[in-house]
Amino acid sequence: MFCCCIFLAVSLLHSLCHFHVSGYDPSCTEYPVFTPSALVVKYGDPANVTCVVCQKDCSGDVSGLEHTVGKVSQNGTTMFWTVDRLTEWGISLQCYYTNDAGNQCTSILNPTLYQPPESVSISFVNHTEMMFENQQYTLQCSVQNVAPVQSLTVTFYRGNTALGHLQSNSEQKKPVNETFTLNITPRREDDGAQYWCESKLELRPAGPQRPPVVTSEKLPAIVHYGPELNEPPNPDVITITEGDTLHLNCSSVGNPSPSYTWTLPLNSSPSYSGSVLTIKSVGFEHEGQHICTVSNTVGTVTKEFNIDVQISSIPYIIRGTLLGVLVLVGLSLGCYCKRKQRGNYKLSKIIVIDRSTPTAYKGAWTSMLLSVLLSVHYRHHLANKLWARRFFLLTNVFSFSFSQRNYLDTMLSCYLFLVISLMISFRDVRVSASGSSCTENPVFTPSALVVKYGDPANVTCVACQKDCSGDVPGLEHAVGKISRNGTTMFWTVDRLTEWGISLQCYYTIDAGVQCTTVLNPTLYQLPESVSISFVNHTEMMFENQQYTLQCSVQNVAPVEKLNVTFYRGNTALGHLQSNSEQKKPVNKTFTLNITPRREDDGAQYWCEAKLELGPAGPQRPPVVTSETFSAPPVYYGPELNEPRNPDVITVKEGDTVHLNCSSVGNPSPSYTWTRPKNSSSSYTGSVLTISSVGFEHEGQYICTVSNTVGNVTKEFNVDVQASIPNSAAFPWIWIIVGVSVAVLSVLICVLCCLFYKQNRKGSYNLKDVLRFPMRTALPLQNCENI
Length: 786
What we know:
Blueprint: H1 2-16, E1 33-35, E2 40-42, E3 47-52, E4 62-66, E5 71-75, E6 78-83, E7 93-98, E8 104-109, E9 112-114, E10 119-124, E11 131-132, E12 137-146, E13 152-158, E14 161-167, E15 176-184, E16 194-201, E17 213-215, E18 219-220, E19 223-229, E20 238-241, E21 246-249, E22 252-255, E23 259-263, E24 276-279, E25 288-295, E26 300-310, H2 313-341, H3 359-377, H4 379-383, H5 386-401, H6 407-425, E27 443-445, E28 450-452, E29 457-462, E30 474-476, E31 481-485, E32 488-493, E33 503-508, E34 514-519, E35 522-524, E36 529-534, E37 541-542, E38 547-556, E39 562-568, E40 571-577, E41 586-594, E42 604-611, E43 623-625, E44 629-630, E45 634-640, E46 649-652, E47 657-660, E48 663-666, E49 670-674, E50 687-690, E51 699-706, E52 711-721, H7 730-760, H8 766-770, H9 780-785
Helix pairs in contact: 1-7, 2-3, 2-6, 3-5, 3-6, 5-6
């Protein structure tokens, strides 16, 4: 019997070696784990998720996964939820198990179901006509049927410049219509700008790698502003020399284009309506104030020019010099004749004036010097007055008529009188050189002309800057009409529709040479349409293979000014230009080779056609964009998420082990596991979970991941070791086990001894057996009565 007790105690001790002691706690020490931990699904797409209920051995507990749609399969403590087409909004998945204390440990997964906007549009709030500079307007971006709206970010753009980012404060899960507004204050530089908005669903990190983006159409804006002068105000007085050319520049900018009105001095030329008033040869009648009034429908500005005309000294110096030469020639001739009569005709004494010189010649010489000095020094006050010229004539007549003694003196006086009178009377003589080459060329304003097909156009040509009124200026043109004001010509056309026209402005100089300037207006036409597609490809794409994008631009001119940019999302992929010199509208196709990566799966491609027309063209180059083209799926082979495992995975008996073979690939890869012979049946998930490892699980596990592109394998070598209690809990476990075994052994021995002793005496009352003797032994008769 005693041996039986010892055997029982040893067996109990051996069984308790595998007993794990844990303190009682009403809260959960672990919770179910979802994989993935966050789920984002597009409306109508399939979905699946895995839940590992618990990591420890809880196979005997009550576990489950609550769901309203889809179906659930289970493999041990791992559950798999799948749905073929998710269309329910606001669903929730609850994965749970019940622990030993009866508490339910639950994890909740709320899948995010999203739907990109059906449409995005942009407009102005309560405004359909023109805009004015420095006034406030409101843009609104309307997004239709989008979910979830709290993940939506709307960005407003002017051209390629972001104006602001807005988000909704709604928490609605189902699709809704949402409107976002932004206040803007346009400037004149924004005239012709294109406004648009972009809606983006920010669903990261569990959402698509490329957030779903939908853009609105482009909304052009027309900004009106009052005239503003191009050049600063003039000085108080503009001083100019008589006979020079004067340009009074009143050019300005404004929208709509401003008109010009000039107020001129009373005795000046008739009215003028251009931006630059040109006076070819300034006279004293042009002296005074010129006022330019610039106006359009928005406002008016004025500019004043105060002109002071001064006499040029150069014509009078030339006149005086010629007068002096002629007088000296006459005097020399007279002196020569006089001295020849006297027999003294040495050439060295011809022009010498001495005592023998007649008084008439001395008076003529004095009158000539006085005339020249007065005409030069007092030219502004005397030389331009009629009485001043008469004074000079009378002075000469008096001088030459004084003391006339003979016929020769009289003839010489008449000669000098004629020369002086002729020089003073021709006060307006101009000295100019003529040659066979052009010293200047006609000038067009503007110097370069860029016109949209069908729009009106005008240009001004100043044939020559100098006094060329006697020449023959002209302007050759194929369309439009010409008006003339002196040597300034104005070309206008109400609707320019002729391609490749040329304007030739010219004048003919004295030598018969024609001086010409040619202006070739640039007529442009925006593309009728812009489209993007792949060349000879409509199905899926494979990573690291080359494909060709093509951007087709229809009916655009001039094509040599066209710049095409390819985009993937908001990233520019390349800029291309045409080498054609065709002026008329043509269809042009541009191609670009791309090599997609896995990150480009689902990317949106588009292209932009921009006419770069230079400084003479619109301040905002005309732009037309294609629709957004969603690329086919980018397929790539499986790639493991985690690195290779160590050669051997050591795990203790009874523990839980996770063999992670998860990978990425497109299409989604499938998993095949090769397990040890003694192990369970086959498994097809990405993570193989063994809740309680036993020695039968020891061996090699091979995971094969494959899709239509390729396959990879991953090996797991599992080594199972006997479980050893935790080092921290080891003394307490053995103390408890030892005390329990000792108490149990003593109790069994005492019972056995007492039972055996009483039985041998013939008394085996159980009450007496279990009752410990105090001071006296039990009576023997009690044993006999049993």
